[in-house]
Structures are given as C-alpha cells and as structure tokens.
Amino acid sequence: MTLQPDQLTITTANLLEAFADFLDIDVAAGDAAADTVNTYRRQVQQFVNWCDRINLHPAAVTKDDIKRYRRWMVDTKKFKPATVSLKLSVVKRFYQAAVEKGLITINPALGVKPPREKLDPAARITYLEKPEVEKLLAAIVNDGSLKAKRDKLLLAIMILEGPRSIELHRANVSDVVKQGGNLGIRVEGKRNIRIVPLTPDLAELLMAYLEARAENGEVVKPSSPLFIAVGNRAGGKRISRRGIRLVVDSYLEQTNLKQTPGRTISAHSLRHTAGTLALRSGAELRQVQDLLGHADPRTTCIYAHVADRWENNPALKLGINLS
Predict the structure, then answer these.
(1) Is residue 292 included in any domain, yes or no?
(2) 175, 204, 12, 189: which is closest to 95 by C-alpha?
(3) Of the residues 2, 245, 287, 288, which has the maximum number of CB atoms within 10 A of its CB?
C-alpha cells in the first residue's frame, strides 16, 4: 500500500513511541511486570522487522498485510497457534495505540484471527505420578548444604503447591506470611496476588533454608529474594526463571524423568502435577482453583479431565473381552 499524504509524516518511531506510552500506562492497568512489558516489545519489534524485510512502512499496513504476516508466522516460522495468537494480539494493540494517538484512523489488525488450536487442551497437561514425585525428591542429596536445602524447598513447593516459576522468582523474604501458627508465601500471579499456604513440612523446610542462608553469612533482609542462586558467579542474587528451570531439569534428567515415551516433563509440569494429584486425591475443584490462582474454573477443570480420562473411560463399562 502506498502512503497517503497524511501518512507521509508518520514514522516508525512515532508508532513505537505511541506503543511505549501504552506499555507505560495501559498494560495491566499501569502495573505490568517487567517480563510482560519486554514480551510486548519483542513481539512488536519482530513485526516491525518483518515490515522492513518486505519494504512495507508500518503506517501503510493493511488488513491483508496482517494476514500475510500471519501466514509468514505459520508457514515460515512454524509457530504454534497459541504463539501466533499472542503475537497478533500485540500487533493489534500496537495499532490501537496509534489510533488512540491520532496517528492512523483504522486498526488494520482488527478482525484478523489466529489459526485454530487443533489440540486437545488436556494433551498439554504433563505431570508426574506420585511414585515419580517421591523419586524426584529423593534424588536431592541431603548433605546439609545450602544448595540442597534450597533445591528441596523449591521442588517440593512447586510439586505440592503449584506456584508458577515466575511467582517464585519474584518472591521476597517479606512475602513469607504468618497466619496463626501457619506459614504461607504471598505470590504475584498474572492477574492477582494470593497466598500459597505451606504444609507444616514445607514450612519447616523454608525456615531451615532461611536459617542456612544466615549461617552462611548472609544478612537476610525483608527485601532479600526468597530464592537465591547458589554458586561462584551469581551466588546470593535472585535466582532467575531460567535458573529455576535448570534446577528442575537437572533432577528430572538425573532421575530419567525428563523424557519418557509420549511425555516430556518441564518445570511447568510440576504445576500440572500439583493440580492433577490434588484433584485425584479428593480435593475440591474450587480449592485447587484457589491454590493455583486460576481466574477461570474451566482451566482447573482440565486437570480433572486428565485425572478422569482413563479411570472413568466409558469403554471400560462395555465388558467386551478382547483376549
């Protein structure tokens, strides 16, 4: 599309500046996490780079161009539908910011839908069975080291309580809360702040971990990160999300649980494990929804569906002998 006279003065920088304002004051009602803002910036930069490669000015983009961008993501980049959906939603917001600033009159991304997800939602749920959980936790050497105490606490909380990696990454010592004789951890999720209640065993592991840090010479302050890296390079600093994944993966690989036929386990799978095993053990759907911080109970229902799929398979009631 050729730039119209009123578009000739609009630069890519103008569009990016409008989007920067949106990131600052609109995303998450002005309280977006740094990770969220960085994700939005990366998605828009990828789109702008794509426009550059085909000599297309972002201000001249049409709805058909957005569809071509969608096709490029699907055919060339081989992105999954969920990834395409995220990228299109960010591009749509990029242009909406420009509309609201009066830079353009029409949002070209409106009405461009992502490809359909052709996947059973339950197929994305990978989890460990109870004996596998016990095997994984047993792999952590009980040598009294700070690393062992941290790893035992980290994995046990993720498996039993199901917080997201980013929630544990963000948590500070001040987020440890006491209610009566119980301990919990205040975590900041995608859309809410909730308290993850700790079992007595987890509370004991937490206190032992914090005491070990103090014994190692650290001045543990309320503003200190709850989970720290251990080692010569980043030791004492807040453990990164990647660092959490590496800790989990190291034990999964050590116990041969990372890759098994038809299943790949990740750090996020420990969250699935918490939800699935809790429902299977008789916990109520609402209780598990609150524990995991799901805004929509339908998300929690997926775990129930996974747990029931084989145990309550209608085919089992047919009584047909195949031997």
Answers:
(1) yes
(2) 12
(3) 288
Tokens representing residue 74 in the block? 């699907």
- The residue type of 133 is V
Domain boundary among 101, 118, 135: 118
78 lies in the same domain as 129: no
Q: Please give the Cα distance from 302 to 98 (Å, whole number).
A: 38
Structural domain contains residue 323: no
Domain containing 66 equals 5-118
Token pair recorded at residue 120 = 């059973």
Residue 36 near residue 190, CB atoms below 8 Å:
no
Q: How far apart are CA 196 and CA 233, in angstroms?
A: 30
Q: Digits of tens for pLDDT over the chain (323 positions)?
A: 445 545 557 889 999 999 988 888 876 555 666 777 888 899 999 999 999 999 999 999 999 999 999 999 999 999 989 899 999 999 999 999 999 999 999 999 999 999 987 666 667 789 999 999 999 999 999 999 999 999 999 999 999 999 999 999 999 999 999 999 999 999 987 678 999 999 999 999 999 999 999 999 999 999 999 999 998 777 789 999 999 999 999 999 999 999 999 899 999 999 999 999 998 888 998 999 999 998 888 888 888 777 677 777 788 788 888 87
149 in the same domain as 107: no
Give the relative orientation of helices 267-280 and 146-161 as an angle to the nearest 10 degrees: 50
Shared domain check, 152 and 254: yes
